[in-house]
Amino acid sequence: MLDVSDAVRAEIGEEEAARLLAGDNAPGSYDCTSCRAPGDPEQEPTSTVLFVGEETAVLAFAHANCLSSQVVQVSEEQLQDAVRTITGTGERSDVHVPPLGVPTQAGPPAPVGAAPRQAILGVTCGQILVDDQLHPALVVEPTAPIARPGSEGTTDEFLTLLVEQGFAPVDDIDRAPLPIAGWSVLLAVGKLHAILQPGPAGGPSTSWWRAHQPLPVTEDWRKAANRTHTVRVYAAPVGAIGQQPREDLLREALEKAAASGVLVGATMPLAGTS
Q1: Among candidate residues 79, 42, 58, 56, the one with its CA nearest the CA of residue 8
Q2: Separation between Cα atoms, residue 193 and residue 214, nearest integer Å
Q3: Phi, psi of 177 (to 5 degrees)
Q4: Element at 222 (helix H, strand E)
Q5: What percent of the residues of the chain are helix, what percent strand, and what percent coil, each to the nearest 5?
Q6: Residues facing residue 207 across a β-bridge
Q7: d(CA 221, CA 35)
Q8: For 270, what's the count of Cα atoms within 13 Å in the CB-facing half-sphere?
């Protein structure tokens, strides 16, 4: 009951895919790379998820209802850190390094735009309380205006560029933002690694934002993400949200930005381990 998608098959090759489907390299049991609950490919539909770095590829397994079979590109440092954390000093059946050489198309994250001065995308993790239920959220705010690529102007077009990518204006924090196709939030071993966007020409996902060092998330945030399997991602221009010391103040800042028409958002699925 193992699913090997065309994207994974293209990366690992037909021979390795055939061995997986025949059960030669498939795990007898595994910890789901999304929800971390046990799984058995002989008893339930199981997806293959290939994490690809610059030099290393790691094949993990997930419940089909948690994640579809897919290829996720990450930095080599992030991949090696995740492998060390997952495997420790021994072997785990839920992680498999394909024996064949795996071609990679790794590169720098695709930029949203060019900035008049060097801009960094700051990301804040928090939870949004809606009808007595906590929902995991990420808030993205640049440190400087973001101009359109190739533009010589200084007009901040950060939100316009995101709307062109599929984000939608947010006017009510109590309503979940609309889903966005092809985007996801990469969480590995309790740390936030990246926000992924669709790859060019239908290729593997690439990093839109990547943490310089993986960011730890709270246990409550991780549990909420595991419960919903989605994350609310909000974005606002520089200065609209700021650094808020508490989640209630973060929500107030989001509500103010929404009321001012300077907040966009999207609901994204989780990718990777949690």
Answers
A1: 58
A2: 5
A3: -60, 160
A4: helix 219-228
A5: 25, 30, 45
A6: 196
A7: 13
A8: 30
Round to whole Å and give the CA distance between 243 and 240.
10
Adjacent-strand bridge partners of 130: 133
Using one digit for the tens of pLDDT, what is the confidence trace for 126-138? 999 888 889 999 9
For the whole model, what pTM was predicted? 0.62
Non-local (6+) Cβ contacts of 29 within 8 A are: 38, 39, 40, 93
Q: Which of 88, 87, 85 is nearest to 77 (CA)?
A: 85
Kindly report, residue by residue over 174-186, the tens digit of the pLDDT. 999 999 998 999 8
- Please count the helices (runs of H) and the strands (runs of E) in the chain: 6, 15
Closest CA to 146 of 71, 70, 239: 239
Length of the chain equals 274
Cα 229 from Cα 80, distance rounded (Å):
24
Per-residue DSSP letter, 201: G
Q: 240: burial class by Cβ within 10 Å (0-12, 13-18, 19+)?
A: buried
Structure tokens at 37: 């609950």
Angle at 68 between CA 63 and CA 70, to 5 degrees: 125
pLDDT in tens, 195-236: 988 877 777 778 888 887 778 888 888 888 888 889 999 999
The DSSP code for 8 is: H
- Ranges of H-type helices in 61-173: 76-87, 158-165
Q: How far apart are CA 236 and CA 159, in angstroms?
A: 7
**Helix, coil or strand: residue 128:** strand
- Which among 163, 158, 67 has a CA at the least distance from the CA of 114? 158
The bridge status of strand 57-63 relative to strand 121-130 is unpaired
